[in-house]
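Late entry, written up from scratch paper. The run itself happened at the end of the previous shift, but nothing got recorded in the book at the time, so transcribing now.
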Amino acid sequence: MAGELITQMGINDLICEKTMGYDGGINTALGVGMKIRGLSFPRTSTKASIASYTGCFYIPASITLGATINFVIHVTDDGTNAADLGTTVYFGVTTKPIPSTAVTLDMDATADAHLGAEQTGSGTLGATTGGVLAITVSVGTGTATMGSGYASGIMWGCRVRRMGEVAVDTCQGRVIVPLVHVRNA
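Output as recorded:
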């Protein structure tokens, strides 16, 4: 059904790729005057140094996939620089269906037909510190965007990253992501 929630991922469901996994707390942040912790996404100038987070989720077999699935990334500024308000942040999402034991959890294997192409979305931070912006990144059904073997009733891998190296991302500071949720479109 259109709009139905597939899953939601909080700070304990996505792990920074730059850590060993047991030190996940170092990648979370509290914004100035905020009481809810989120994942830290600093702006970086190169793809190699970017903060990206990976995780797995399950699409129940009872869900009939629509034309797209939407990753809704909830973003706020960190409250340290008023100049960040009203600027644009840019995110990318990569998905990988994992339908069998023959498919690995590797999210970098470019020759892997199961790895979908990165899809992107952007949004403008509000004028109030701590205001939450919802950026939607749509991943269309099809092998090119979702990866080979896409279906409901299986586990999926995903990567969420801030694309600070792209000129569209004009926010110079760090942003905080407390939640990502996935909806059927």
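The chain has one helix and eleven strands.
(Scratch paper discarded after transcription.)
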